[in-house]
Amino acid sequence: MTSGDRFNADHLGLSLTQAERLYFQMRLIREFETTLLDLFSQNAVFGTTHTCLGQEANAVAIMEALDRNIDTVWSNHRCHGHFLAYCGKVAELFAEIMGRELGVCAGRGGSQHICWHRFHSNGVQGGIVPLALGTAMAGKAEGAVTVVFLGDGTLGQGVVYECLNLAALWQLPVLFVLEDNGVAQTTPSELVFSGNAQARAEAFGLESAYSDTSEVMALHATASDLISRIRNGGSPCFWHIRSVRLGPHSKGDDTRSPEQMAALQQRDPVRLNERLVDTPLRLEQRCKTIIREALAQAEASPVNDGSLTA
Amino acid sequence: MAADDRIMFWGEDILDPYGGAFKVSRGLSKRFGERVLTTPISEAAIVGIAAGRAMRGLPTVVEIMFGDFVTLCADQIVNHATKLPWVYNNQVQVPLVIRTPMGGYRGYGATHSQSLEKMFCGVPGLTVLAVNSYTDPGALLREAFALETPVLFVEQKILYARFVDALPVAPEKPDVALVCYGTMVEFSVQAAHRLSQEEEVYCKVVPVQQIWPLDEMSLVRELQSAERVLVIEEGTNGYGFGGECARLLARLGKPMGFVAANPHPIPNSRVYEDRALPSVDRIVEKAIQLFEQT
Questions:
Q1: Cβ neighbours of B121 (radius 10 Å)
Q2: Which of B52, B60, B87 is the closest to A132 by Cβ?
Q3: Given Cys at both, which of A224, B210, B236, B283 links B191, Cβ 3.0 to 4.6 Å?
Q4: What is the pTM of this model?
Q5: Does A202 touch chain B (CB under 8 A)?
Q6: Which residues of chain B lie closer than 8 angstroms to A132, CB-CB?
Q7: Dehydrogenase E1 component domain location, by residue (chain A) (predicted)?
Q8: Domain ranges within chain A, ordered by starting residue
Q9: How many angstroms separate the most distant Cα atoms in chain A?
Q10: What is the third-level CATH fold of A3-300?
C-alpha cells in the first residue's frame, strides 16, 4: 500500500466502540446494496450484481477478527459486504461497478472481480478455493491467515473437496466460511445437497464450527476464536454459518414466496442488532451521507473506455 | 531452484526415488527437501494453489503428469491465473509455470498421447512455450519466469530421450520454410535432409518456442527469404498452430501448406497411431505438393 491508498478508517468506523462499529458497518453495507439495486432498477447502472442483503453480520464479524494488514480474504460473486467490511472503500466500489476509472480495479473487474491489498474476489463458484490455499501457504511464515467464502451452492464443485483435503494435509492457515443461505440462485439446497456440510469437512480432517444466528457479537466471538486458533498453529477450519438471503440472487430474480421472505425477515441482522447501539438513527444518517457522497464521487469519475491502458 | 530459494515445485509422483512419471524431477526432492511436494491427483487444486502462492510473489512450478490432464485445470488457467491480473488492473502478478508432457508416438493411447496445447493458445494473459531438441530446455524454463504471465510449458514426451543438438545451417534462399515446434522440429530436420538429398529441395527449419502469443515480427523476418511455407504441428488439424500462422502470414502471399494429426482420437495400435500423427514422410510429401501449387 502506498500512503495515499489506505483502508478507509472513517468508513470502517474505527473510532467507534466495537458494538457501534459492527452495527455501523452492517448499516453501511445495507445502504450500499439497497442503493445499488435502486440504481439498477432505474437503469442507471449497466450489467449485473449480487447483493448480500441479510448476510451483513457474517462479513463484519469476520473482518473485525482479522488483521487486515496481513490476512487475506477470498470472496465470491456476493462480495460487496466482505469488501466494504474489509476496507471501507465505498466510492471505489461504486465506481468499479459502474466501470469508472476511480474503481478499485479501474472499472476492469466490476461487481464480482475486485481486488485491493489482500482482498480478492472472483465470480466462478469454487475456483477461488485453491487460490486461497495458495495465499495461505505464502502467508504462513508471517503468521497470516486466509479466509475464503463459500456459498451452499459452491458445495457442488469438486475442486472444493480437493482443497479440503489439501488444506488439512498441508496444515494451511485457512478458514473456510460457508455462508449457507439455503438457496443457490433459485434452487433450494434440499434439491441439490445431500448429507451434512460440516461432516464433509470433518471427514477430511478439518476442525469445524457451526453457527445458526444473525447476532453479530456471537458471530464475532466465534470468528475471533477460530482465527486466533488458526493463527497460532491450529488446524485449518470449516465454519458453517446458517444465514439468510433477504434479496434476490441478482436483480429481481427471486422466486421465493412472500411468506417465506417474511419468515426470513426475522433473521435480518441489521434490525436484530439495532439494540446494540444507543443511537442507531444517527449512525444510519451517517451511512446515508457516506453513500450519497461516495456515489457522487463515483459518478464524477470518467468511464474507463479502454483508452488509458491496454 | 538453486538460484532462487523462493521457488517451489509440486506435482504427482515427483518425489525420489521415482522422480516423476518421466523422471524429469529425479533428484529434486533429495536436493531441495520441503520445497518439493508430492500431491494428490487433484490437478485443479494444485494448479490453483500454485497460482495463489505465485500471486504473493513466490514463483511456483507445477507438473501435470500428462498433458492430456490439463483440461482438469482449465478453469484455474482460463478463469483465474490468467484472468485475475488483468481484471484486478495489474495489482497482482502470477509467476506460475505449469510443466507438462504432451504428444504421442509412444503407444499410450487416446488419453495419454494428445497435444492439447492449442486449447490454451489464444487465452489472453497466458504464454505457451514448447521445448524442442535444438534449444536448451533449462534456459527456456528460466526465461519462463522472466515473463510477466503464467506459462504453460509444453514438453513433448519423446524429447525426454534426446540430447540437445545443433540445428543444421539453413540455405540462404530456401525453397520451403518448415515452421514447427516440439517434436515436429526434429521431424522437420529429417524431412529437410531427405528433401535436399532426394529432391534437391532446400528447406529452412524454423523452430518456434513461444507458440502463444506468436511473435509476428520475428516469424515474418525468418520467413522473408523463403519461397513457400509449410507449417507442421503434432496436434489435430483445425483451430491450431497452422491456422494461427496462416492468420499472421497471409499478407506475405507465399504458398502455404499444413501438416497436422488426423482429427480423430489417437489409436492404440502402433501402426495406426503412426498413420494418425504427422510423419517425416508426410512432411516430405506436403513440401513437394507446394511446388505443384505454383
A1: 20
A2: B52
A3: B283
A4: 0.96
A5: no
A6: 52
A7: 25-297
A8: 3-300
A9: 52
A10: Rossmann fold (3.40.50)
